[in-house]
Amino acid sequence: MLILTKISHLETFLSQKRSQGSIIGFVPTMGALHEGHISLIKASKNVTDVTVCSIFVNPTQFNDKKDLERYPKTPEKDVMMLEKAGCDAVFMPDAEEIYPEIDERRFDFGYLDKILEGAHRPGHFNGVAQVVSILFNLVKPDKAFFGQKDYQQVMIIKALVKQLHYPIEIVPCPILREKDGLAMSSRNTLLTPDERKAASLIPIVMNEVNELSRKGTEIPELKKHIEERLKDPIYKIDYFAVCDADTLKELNSFSEAKYHVALIACFVGKIRLIDNIILH
Ligand code: PAF
Prior knowledge:
Blueprint: E1 2-4, H1 7-19, E2 24-29, H2 35-47, E3 50-55, H3 65-70, H4 75-85, E4 89-91, H5 95-98, H6 117-120, H7 124-139, E5 143-147, H8 151-163, E6 169-173, H9 193-199, H10 201-214, H11 219-229, E7 235-244, E8 260-268, E9 271-279
Helix pairs in contact: 7-8, 10-11
Bound molecules: pantoate.
């Protein structure tokens, strides 16, 4: 596997591959890789000829400086995991390479960047759009792979691709979970043992929401259920919402949409975790 830190080296590698007619798959990440990321690499390898992963902890998408500072970094382990998974090249630029100047661009995705994560992490999706558009310009992939744990992010990226007319297919991939159901996340490593134990209640209550909705429980009661189940002070719910799975419009009643997704963001101690479930 090639380890590239400079844009010029990335471009040389990619233009050579493209001249051989290779289909390029791209998996952008912020490192601290886990099996969820590796499943994206595998998904790419299944349908493309060359898989490129990027590792870049993007400062512009962190609205909380402390969150950026404590974001886990495990570059050696990441490289080993990518190598083992058969990734062809990893791009690990430094901040000057990506942002030689301050990126002043402001994106507007309408209501999509103002709700849920957008409302609770102001500027987050602008930062994501900045870095992903830069990486897409550099890699020019045919297909790019994103995990569905970041359900809203996938929708933002799809909107970005439409807005900027990128000829890139966005491939959403299923959430990977730990044995106890907790959605895999780089942030899980920051949890203390007690918090890690407590975090496993999140997927349990999300499955309960699915069960209850099947039995006809309406959205306001589901919200009460979540508040009741996560009332221990170790939890702090940032939001819980049931939305139209296609548009992410927040719903008050299931009758307002055909397909439904429940989304949660919840602090366990100081660590903010997100999860979602398609209801059926
Ligand atoms: O999902 C992530 O890890 C990041 O938001 C992404 C897409 C790599 C952009 O920094």
